[in-house]
Write a structure and sequence with these properties.
With 412 residues, the chain is α/β, with parallel strands linked by helices. The protein is 52% helix and 7% strand. It has three domains: 13-105, Fumarate Reductase Iron-sulfur Protein, Chain B, domain 2, CATH 1.10.1060; 112-285, no CATH class; 288-411, Rossmann fold (3-Layer(aba) Sandwich), CATH 3.40.50. The protein is built from 23 helices and eight strands. It has a four-stranded parallel beta sheet with strand order 2-1-3-4, sandwiched between helices. It is globular and about 70 Å long.
């Protein structure tokens, strides 16, 4: 797809990137059946190909309208289209670029701007989020049913992270909402890694990874958060940490992308590449044979339906590893339909596009529960909470299931 950036973009890094990204698209349409929103609406403009045309028009100087923004907003950024594309179109980069352009050219109404700023500020501040979450949990029984579903019951347990005692150390990213919603996830990760001879530490000065702001058009805020995390993570790597590990696949994907996002920043480009190269999803630092060496033997576990978050399977391209770990822990993986379908969570998407998000969740839960599982396992806090709200069976992070199996094995 040939594109000539208009004046104002021509010769700029943004314009050059847009032209290079658009060049690979050959209009074939293989992306359409892979796109969750197109499968629901049947509207070409709710497909990757349709959105690429809208972005191309903006790049070439055509007027951006509220309709342009409407259809770009409805994209989940699941990147399933990238896996289906025979031409290698980097659609995730294109949609981010398109959102930056439309935010500049089509100002939102004040209530919409306030909502988006509020989401970025509220969700990216763990202490603020945790405090307000506890208030919501205390008042949960008085909330409307729709809000009750979004607020998980409070757990009285206080998970303990083992003290550092091993020569091998990794940084385990805390995340923004996960410590408040499910503090047991990182505690379970720390227990498993401790059994494998790896201590975890928290990096001083950790910020939100920036994904929230990045996908909502607050690019400069996201890049500033990325710079601060790069500085903090490099200090930890200099001090001997061997990797940066995330138990939330969305955060891990964002940090792995720092090298590209900060490539034109002379003060952080090299450091950002270093951090990206050192970042691993939790499933990438644990292998089934590690669990066997830690004393775990296959036993009668649970019937588990595995939901691979889009950020894990399409973004990070990490496939098969979690399934192997769950089986090594003695669990039985149940067959599921449509494994590449997005659950509809997609960060703040469930709040900003509730109708599409709810329909995708309904379809996903139908696909996951068809085999009568006892539990659904996933790898991202957003997917976990979105599915949990209406799931007929418990939804947990996969590392919790592995940690439970290790604990059971040690107690036998």
């Amino acid at each position: 797809m040939y594109s000539q950036p208009a004046a104002g973009l021509e010769g700029t890094p943004r314009g050059d990137e847009a032209r290079a990204l658009l060049r690979n698209c050959v209009h074939c349409g293989f992306c359409l059946p892979a796109c969750p929103t197109y499968r629901i609406t049947g509207n070409e403009l709710d497909s990757p190909r349709g959105r690429i045309y809208l972005i191309k028009q903006m790049v070439e100087g055509a007027e951006a309208t509220a309709t342009t923004r409407f259809h770009l907003d409805r994209c989940l950024t699941c990147r399933a289209c990238e896996r289906a594309c025979p031409s290698g179109v980097e659609y995730g980069r294109l949609i981010d670029l398109g959102r930056e352009l439309v935010e500049d050219r089509v100002p939102r109404a004040l209530p919409q701007r306030a909502l988006r700023v509020g989401l970025v500020e509220f969700l990216s501040r763990p202490r603020l989020f945790g405090s307000l979450l506890r208030i919501g949990q205390a008042a949960r029984s008085w909330l409307p049913a729709a809000l009750q579903a979004r607020v998980p019951p409070r757990s009285d347990s206080r998970p303990v992270i083992p003290a550092a005692r091993h020569a091998r150390r990794v940084v385990l990213l805390e995340g923004c909402v996960q410590p408040g919603l499910k503090p047991g996830i990182n505690a379970a990760a720390a227990r498993v890694l401790d059994r494998l001879g790896i201590s975890v530490e928290r990096v001083a000065g950790e910020q939100c990874c920036g994904a929230l702001g990045h996908h909502l058009g607050h690019t400069e805020r996201a890049l500033d958060q990325a710079r601060r995390n790069v500085d903090a993570c490099c200090a930890a790597l200099d001090a001997g940490a061997e990797a940066i590990v995330s138990s939330a696949s969305a955060c891990g994907l964002m940090v792995k992308d720092y090298g590209r996002l900060l490539a034109s920043d002379p003060g952080h480009a090299q450091l950002a590449r270093r951090v990206s190269e050192a970042t691993r999803d939790l499933a990438e630092v644990i292998a089934p044979e590690d669990l066997a060496r830690a004393g775990l033997r296959s036993s009668n576990g649970l019937r588990v339906a595995w939901h691979a978050p889009c950020t894990l399977q399409h973004g990070q391209r990490v496939g098969g590893r979690v399934e192997a770990l769950l089986e090594a822990a003695g669990h039985t993986l149940m067959p599921t339909r449509d494994p590449t379908l997005c659950c509809g969570s997609a960060g703040t998407y469930s709040l900003l596009q509730p109708e599409l998000s709810s329909e995708l969740r309904r379809r996903k839960l139908g696909a996951l529960t068809g085999g009568n599982p006892q539990v659904i396992a996933t790898a991202n806090i957003g997917c976990l909470e979105h599915l949990r709200a209406t799931s007929p069976v418990p939804v947990r992070h996969w590392i919790e299931l592995v940690a439970d199996a290790l604990d059971d094995a040690s107690n036998r």
